[in-house]
Amino acid sequence: MKHFFSSRTGIVLTGGAIGIIASLLQYLGNPPNMGICVACMERDIAGAIGLHRAGVVQYIRPEIIGFVLGAFFISLIVKEHKPRGGSAPLIRFFLGVFAMIGALVFLGCPWRALLRLAGGDGNAIVGLLGLTAGISIGVYFLSSGYNLGRAQPQKPFSGWVFPAFMLGLFLLLIFKVSFAEGGPIFFSQKGPGAMHAAVWISLAAGLIVGIIAQRSRFCTMGAIRDVVLVRDFHLISGVAALLVAAFAMNLVLGQFKMGFEGQPIAHTDHLWNFLGMVLAGLAFVLAGGCPGRQLFLSGEGDLDAGIFALGMIVGGGIAHNFAMASSPKGVAAFGPASVIFGLVFCLVIGYAMRDKVKA
Amino acid sequence: MIEIDLRGFGCPIPVVKAKRAMEENPGQPIAVLVETAVSRENLTRLANSKKYGMEVEETGESEYRIVLTPKP
């Protein structure tokens, strides 16, 4: 009944392995403090397929594909692949859009916030505080009866669609398909999008993380949520292990540089670093998982998680097309407005989607 | 016995609702229906922290009826 990965040791080893893999991916070519960043990598995919034209962040990241396919294969093997869906998909889509916008104002999802901290970027502390604040707001809604309703069992084939989409992306990547002169598919010639480990290394890393994270239910948002909600320190011990392992590896590989100024792919606008992550954290709680967890769930056949992931990819396109995504120079013209708009959206959803309280 | 059907709810709703049922019905056993191994694992940790005993019955293919009984 009880399997190894659901134990405390299992989650700690998972977090530690992810930290080491992420740090190694940076060493092997991924952008600094971005060994794994689900938001950034989905944003790069959005750019590669032309949903935005920010030339420096366009690449089909094999890690994302590996996350989904790793979780897909292992869930089939352990008989946890269970197609299900229909729990407010449209709302989940928009939660994904706004989660991405918030993450791109900060410049990273919770995974990258941890990796930035492990690399010495002090701005990550501000982001993680914002994340915790956003999650705490979400926990308030959960405690008030918030939920998005039940999912229904779906026919077996539906659970293959999202993994097939990932396989399609992978084929576009390895055959470098061009649909018109100059793209799509777009591949960055410079900037973070041009920095990546070899395709097979990235894919293997993604598959390993997908497998161990599916087994251990690793979730960066759930870690903080469980502490706030039920004083459960299970998941957060995995997150702590990730942080320690990535920090140690960064020291070994000479990738550690402490400070606030001049950190790679980061800015020092504390207010919007904080509020961007408040938005992302709140959206993740309302949707039931961090962006990584949503990918693992998609692999397991959770169609609603797949919709959230698609919302994030589209959100990456929107964030860059509408000047909402930050850059190392700072917050973009419409970043602050989009965060406030997103917060209002999430607060309304959190309030409106509560069960009616019995009189 | 209090019975709650939490099939179809994603994480962490089963934990939230089971916890509320515990708090609203102190000292009483609670039966919970859930659908995923994740919910089962999460309820195991909740039961441990709330000092409830737990009996799991597999009622279908990955469908569980979990009886939570407060320890004296």
Walk me through this protein's architecture.
The complex is a heterodimer of chains A (359) and B (72). Chain A has 359 residues and is mostly helical. Chain A has one domain (8-352). Chain A has helices at residues 8-27, 38-48, 62-77, 89-106, 110-118, 123-143, 158-174, 199-216, 220-230, 234-253, 270-287, 291-300, 303-321, 335-352; strands spanning 84-85, 152-153. In chain A, strands 1-2 form a two-stranded antiparallel ribbon. Chain B has 2 helices and 4 strands. Chain B is globular and about 30 Å long. Chain B has a single domain (2-70), classed as Translation Initiation Factor IF3, CATH 3.30.110.40. Chain B is α+β, with helices and mostly antiparallel strands. In chain B, strand 3 (52-60) and strand 4 (63-70) form a beta hairpin. Chain B has helices spanning 13-24, 37-49, and strands spanning 2-5, 30-34, 52-60, 63-70. In chain B, strands 1-2-4-3 form a 4-stranded mixed beta sheet, covered by helices on one side. The chains are: A mainly alpha (359), B alpha+beta (72). The interface between A and B is medium-sized, with 29 and 21 residues.
Give the topology, please.
The complex is a heterodimer of chains A (359) and B (72).
Chain A lengths: L7 H20 L10 H11 L13 H16 L6 E2 L3 H18 L3 H9 L4 H21 L8 E2 L4 H17 L24 H18 L3 H11 L3 H20 L16 H18 L3 H10 L2 H19 L13 H18 L7
Antiparallel strand pairs in A: 1-2
Chain B lengths: L1 E4 L7 H12 L5 E5 L2 H13 L2 E9 L2 E8 L2
Parallel strand pairs in B: 1-2
Antiparallel strand pairs in B: 2-4, 3-4
Helix pairs in contact in B: 1-2
